Amino acid sequence: MSIKITVIGAGSVVFSLGLVKDLCLTEGLRGSKVCFMDINEESLDVVYKLGVRYAEDLGSELRFDKTLNREESLQDADFVINTATITHNEYFMKRRRDLTTKFGYFYGGTGMPEYHNIQLMLDVAKDMERICPKAWILQAGNPVFDGTTLMSRETNIKVCGLCHGHYGYREIVRVMGLDPNRVTWQAPGLNHNIWLTHFYYEGKDAYPIMDKWLEKNIVSYWEEKEKGGGYSAQLSPSAIHQYKMYGLMPIGDTPRRGGWWYHTDMETRLRWYGGPIGGGDTPEGRDNILKGKERHYQQMKEAAYNSDIRPVKLFGDKKTSEQHVPIIDGLVNDHEGFFQVNVRNDGALPGVPNDVAVEVPAIVNRKGIQPLRVDPLPKKILLECIYPDWLRMERTLEAVKSGDKSMLLFGILESHQTRSYDQATQILEAILNMEPNEPMAYIEDINKHFKWPGNWNLGNK
Amino acid sequence: MSIKITVIGAGSVVFSLGLVKDLCLTEGLRGSKVCFMDINEESLDVVYKLGVRYAEDLGSELRFDKTLNREESLQDADFVINTATITHNEYFMKRRRDLTTKFGYFYGGTGMPEYHNIQLMLDVAKDMERICPKAWILQAGNPVFDGTTLMSRETNIKVCGLCHGHYGYREIVRVMGLDPNRVTWQAPGLNHNIWLTHFYYEGKDAYPIMDKWLEKNIVSYWEEKEKGGGYSAQLSPSAIHQYKMYGLMPIGDTPRRGGWWYHTDMETRLRWYGGPIGGGDTPEGRDNILKGKERHYQQMKEAAYNSDIRPVKLFGDKKTSEQHVPIIDGLVNDHEGFFQVNVRNDGALPGVPNDVAVEVPAIVNRKGIQPLRVDPLPKKILLECIYPDWLRMERTLEAVKSGDKSMLLFGILESHQTRSYDQATQILEAILNMEPNEPMAYIEDINKHFKWPGNWNLGNK
Q1: Residue B424 CB neighbours (<10 A)
Q2: How would you class B85 by CB atoms within 10 Å of its CB: exposed for 0-12, middle for 13-18, buried for 19 or more?
Q3: Chains A, B: CB contacts under 8 A, how many?
């Protein structure tokens, strides 16, 4: 069926390339229109040209469009994929990390709520409500948990947040030398906070198999891998520690997070995430990610503009494992599939309020995105992992909604890296006074949005 | 009406004296029997003798009994007042503070759940279920919030937790030079976490009156009082800061608590709770409290044993402002009164789960303890004060129930004073290995009750 898919923030390097490929390789979406929207004209053109040439390579009949205007891009859209971000930009994050380091924070762990990204999601969703009220939004940019919850509450559009973290179970299976295709699994929770409740191999409980493997191999696995490029967070000492605390394996981005005590400084990162650089979430790890993205962008430019190079040669003709396009295919063409989605709970994950976005498995077909009602998570996981994260999210949304600056301050005070009240007020002002980046011009100014309570000077000596 | 009132932990110095006085002065309880129970024979005898002599002084017809046996004390009881504590004992707390100081904690702020006190409450409640299932328990010992919730969930006895913190509103009124008898107020929440939602003076909103007073006087009030013995937490800079954050005045023990950033070290305490000693919750402040209690105990001994001294001369013939005896009088004799109680929520405080103990106003008469259904607290207070405290309580109860030692560890890691994972494991073991105090022999050994998860050594290098 021919539909219109709009991609907001299409200049996003890694994401758009995969999307173009998946769209070209999905038979059922032949003839569809893809509208790329970004505020950065240069990267927008790269993605646009790359799309056109990739479609040529793969003999796809997709039609492409590009625009700098968000409202225009939303006209007649059936699906909106929002991958845009304001502060989760590598350059901005680096600048912010450098600043916060001066105030005693490691790796930017200030606890400052991400106002800009959340406000952007809400702005897009409200535009959609006006311009394309029947369209689905597939939210790719972070924070998916906060944003999916907020858009579900504040608008009437159809909202689904997507992430690829749940594929972390495959990493475990792969390292253990098992065949991922013989695994049956389930890992519900909140986005970036999901837990392997069910794990079967060829129909048998695979937790005992994993336990044996870990017992025998995990220490030597760490030692081996540390001599090379390191290991992913999925099998790090942090992941194993969380497994021991909770009795279920944390999956994907979950072991990248966990308690503050895994993240306080470089030495601690090395202990819990291994050498040589303490995993991706360290200054050096992030620099590597940035370099990778820059290399990737250069390749994309080549593939877009160099007539001697064809995209298919550089990037192949295989679908990615991202879920966006298969979900669209399921909804539009009834090509049923099984996915991991973030949607308003409404009872799917017992113990979590109805109006909170949960990450759960879902059957997707013409009837819609239909979450499975999963088993409740263990009480300890609820009390120590799920509810604290839920509360943090609720405070963030309330801060954005109320514009109460003291709620930003509370977020910073909640960071375990914050050592004193004065440090918190100082870093808050420092972040608020940072030189804005380009996309911030498209969002209500953070310093206009947030105000101290009226009597804030009472009793100040 | 003649009833039997049992006091568990009757050797508690301050509490028992007031109770005896209130009982003697309550006409409707004439002829009742008071059974004092304690494990400390010496202090038990002091309270017993003092009771007998005080009753003589006041011409009361109360009958007194004493026992070292808890089960015996509960036989035929109509009311059980539990004031017993295991670790909230000044000497033990001092010993624990001295220990934790060596591990880098100020004023014992380790976050270690209070297993012993909670287990004791549950043990008493379960005994009551067996021996005097129709009796009320009036819970006086802390933690009232955790204990009231637990006993309400795990037993079928009638549970009410009591505290006197709500009288903090009188301190505000008194300092402002107003007449407490013309004030109408309401301050619901959780125990030690209550907020002045309603405040009227002679029928008019008193918040604007207070705002004006604070604006004009609070700084000079602090300066003035710091020259003397200091001021109570109720009007401290911490209280005012919480008022500015939340728009409602925190009452009683609420401003004594608040965020971690008020409590990190002595300098910080002086900033938020004033000189000369940073309020009661500092090492020096606590030493003063201990000295006061010791003096009081000597006085009580005099009044109990010295034939030249009569209790009424030393301690007067006025009722205290404690609620225990008036509540008994209300329930038994239909002498209706208005109180502040901690009871299972069941909708009294919207936004808090039904099976959690809330602190709310209640009408007490022959029909029972009838909580008022109050207005919801502001969302910000729920998100930043009430829910985090609720979660902390739930984790504590789950730790006690499950015996999972890693939940004790999590409690310590949650303390903002904890700086690293290793510090947390070390202080945990240090506390668990403390020389037990006498009452601990009456409770299941903490080191038997708590065990690490089965795979705790997995991956340890």
Answers
A1: 25
A2: buried
A3: 104
Rounded CA-CA distance B237/B253 in Å is 14
Q: What is the three-state SS of chain B?
A: CCCEEEEECCCCHHHHHHHHHHHHCCHHHCCCEEEEECCCHHHHHHHHHHHHHHHHHHCCCCEEEEECCHHHHHCCCCEEEECCCCCCCHHHHHHHHHHHHHCCCCCCCCCCCCHHHHHHHHHHHHHHHHHCCCCEEEECCCCHHHHHHHHHHHCCCEEEECCCHHHHHHHHHHHCCCCHHHEEEECCEECCEEECCEEEECCEECHHHHHHHHHHHHHHHHHHHHHCCCCCHHHCHHHHHHHHHHCCCEECCCCCCCCHHHCCCHHHHHHHHCCCCCCCCCHHHHHHHHHHHHHHHHHHHHHHHCCCCCHHHHHCCCCCCCCHHHHHHHHHHCCCEEEEEEEECCCCCCCCCCCCEEEEEEEEECCEEEECCCCCCCHHHHHHHHHHHHHHHHHHHHHHHHCEHHHHHHHHHHCCCCCCHHHHHHHHHHHHCCCCCHHHHHCCCHHHHCECCCCCCCCCC
| Banded model confidence at residue B14, pLDDT cuts 50, 70, 90 | confident
Is the whole-model pTM more than 0.90? yes
Chain A residues lying within 8 Å of B259, measured CB to CB: 413
Dihedral sign for Cα atoms in the order A446, A449, A450, A454: positive
Residues of A serving a catalytic function are 164, 253
Give pLDDT tens digits for B194-242: 999 999 999 999 999 999 999 999 999 999 999 999 999 999 999 999 9
Q: Are B455 and A421 an interchain contact pair (Cβ–Cβ within 8 Å)?
A: no
Give me the residues of B, 164-203, that contact A with CB < 8 A: none
Average pLDDT (B85-92) is 95
Average pLDDT, chain B: 96
Minimal CA separation from B231 to chain A, in Å: 15
- Which pLDDT tens digit goes with each residue over B25-50? 999 999 999 999 999 999 999 999 99
Question: Are the beta carbons of A290 and A282 closer than 8 angstroms?
Answer: no
Between the alpha carbon of residue B222 and those of residues A91, A460, B229, B233, the distances in Å are 48, 11, 11, 11
pLDDT along chain A (461 residues), means of 10: 94 84 93 96 96 93 96 98 96 97 98 98 98 98 97 98 97 97 98 98 98 97 96 97 98 97 97 96 95 93 94 93 97 98 98 98 98 98 98 98 98 98 98 98 98 96 72
Is B305 touching A (CB cutoff 8 A)? no
Q: Is B220 part of the contact surface with chain A (CB cutoff 8 Å)? A: no
Start-to-end C-alpha separation, chain A? 68
What tens digit of pLDDT does each residue of A164-215 get?
999 999 999 999 999 999 999 999 999 999 999 999 999 999 999 999 999 9
Q: Are the beta carbons of B380 and A398 separated by less than 8 Å?
A: yes
Alpha carbons B229 and B235: distance in angstroms, whole number: 14
Q: What pLDDT, on the 0 to 100 scale, is given for residue B198?
A: 98
Looking at the complex, report in whole angstroms how far the Cα of residue B85 sits from the nearest Cα belonging to chain A.
Answer: 27
**Alpha-carbon span A79 to A22, nearest angstrom:** 15
Provide the 3-class DSSP secondary structure of residue A225: helix
Condensed to tens digits (0 to 9), the pLDDT of residues A8-21 reads: 999 987 788 899 89
Asked whether the CA dihedral A37, A43, A49, A51 is positive or negative, the reply is: negative
Say yes or no: B422 contacts chain A, CB-CB below 8 A.
no
- Cα–Cα distance, B458 to B437 (Å, whole number): 35
